[in-house]
Every structure is written in C-alpha cells, then in structure tokens.
Specification:
Helices cover 17% and strands 28% of the residues. It is α+β, with helices and mostly antiparallel strands. An 11-stranded antiparallel sheet has the order 1-6-7-8-5-2-3-4-11-10-9. The longest helix is centred in the last third of the chain and has 10 residues. The relative contact order is 0.18.
Length: 201
C-alpha cells in the first residue's frame, strides 16, 4: 500500500470544492492527488488547486481519493495509505480518528486548461457571483486576506488567491495561510441583467 503525506488543511480546503452526492459525474466525488503534486477538487463550478500539495512517490499516477469524513480542525497532517483497487485505504491524522479513503475510478477533468499563463491579466468592472460560493472562501482561507482577479475573458472564471492574514496573532489563520500559500480557487461568474446594473450605478 503506497503512503503519502499531506497537510490536513489542504485536504479540508479541497473537500469544500468537491462535488456533492447529487452530482452524477462520480469522478468529482473526491480529491485529485495529481502526478505533478497538485491537490485539486472541483464540483464543475468552483475549483481548488494547491500546487506541490504533497510529494508524489515515483510512478504515482493521477489519483482521485474520496475521504468519508473530513479531518478535524486540530489535525495538521494526514498520512494517507492509498487504496489499492477495491481495497479501501485510510488516512491517519496527527489528531482525531482514522478516516476511511476510497479510490474513485474515472478520468478527472483537465483542470490545467483553466489555469493558463496570461489568462488573468486584464480586470473587468462588474462581476456577478453566487453568494453560496463566497461562504466557501472563508472556510478554505479562514482569517486570510484574499485577492480576487478576473481574467481576460469576460465570462471566464474569477481567480482567488490568499495574500496574507488579517491578524498575525490568529494562529488558525497563520496556519491556514502557511499551508495554502500558492494555492488558488476559481469561481465561475453568473449571468445578470446589465440593465439592472446600469440602474444601480
């Protein structure tokens, strides 16, 4: 059984963006541990990516893992004994109980096509977002300062990156920022009636 080690905060954050039970694309019901070390999760509308989120063993393929419960807040590190075929795996946190882990079969979306160099170079004036997605930001980046940036396409996703913490004495925020530095979220904007916007401005 192959073992990897990953920040518990990275896993908790990724799980905020994985698909729910109603999603029929079953490969989205988990977290991608990519061969390049990325940790990725998406439900098709929002996406979380943490580059170099773990150190993949030699020969590690893109692997989607479904955690049957999230690591508790006090957990800082997970040692994941990856499942093998139909044999379930386990994730052992430094605090809390052992978490069962299942292997999700299927081809994960090509998330790298959404994060291309030069895509986020020109801002736009108006962005419409679903408010439910904004609550996830505070769960993924608790106590952190985050930067919103729109790409060069008007209907393209919004990039969100952590920029620091609100308070250096907030241990939870400092820990989250240290673990998630270099990560990003993408959120797709919503369509809106521009005539209503004109009336408000």
């Amino acid at each position: 059984m192959i073992t990897i080690t990953v920040s518990a905060q990275v896993v908790r954050s990724a799980m905020q963006c994985e698909a729910g039970n109603k999603e029929t694309r079953y490969m989205l019901h988990g977290v991608l541990f990519a061969a390049n070390g990325d940790v990725v999760a998406t439900n098709g509308h929002i996406l979380f990516r943490c580059p170099n989120g773990f150190k993949p063993p030699i020969g590690w393929p893109d692997t989607v893992l479904c955690f049957l419960s999230a690591p508790i807040v006090r957990a800082t590190e997970l040692v994941i004994h990856a499942p093998n075929g139909s044999t379930p795996g386990v994730a052992t946190p430094d605090h809390g109980t052992i978490i069962n882990v299942l292997l999700v079969d299927g081809q994960y979306p090509k998330y790298t096509q959404l994060i291309k160099p030069g895509l986020y170079t020109s801002p736009v004036n108006s962005i419409c977002l679903q408010s439910d997605y904004l609550t996830k930001i505070s769960k993924i980046y608790p106590g952190c300062l985050v930067l919103f940036h729109h790409g060069s396409k008007e209907d393209g996703p919004i990039k969100i990156v952590p920029m620091g913490v609100l308070s250096a004495t907030d241990d939870k925020a400092v820990s989250a920022y240290d673990a998630l530095r270099g990560s990003l979220m993408l959120i797709m904007p919503c369509n809106y009636d521009e005539s209503l916007l004109d009336a408000l401005l």
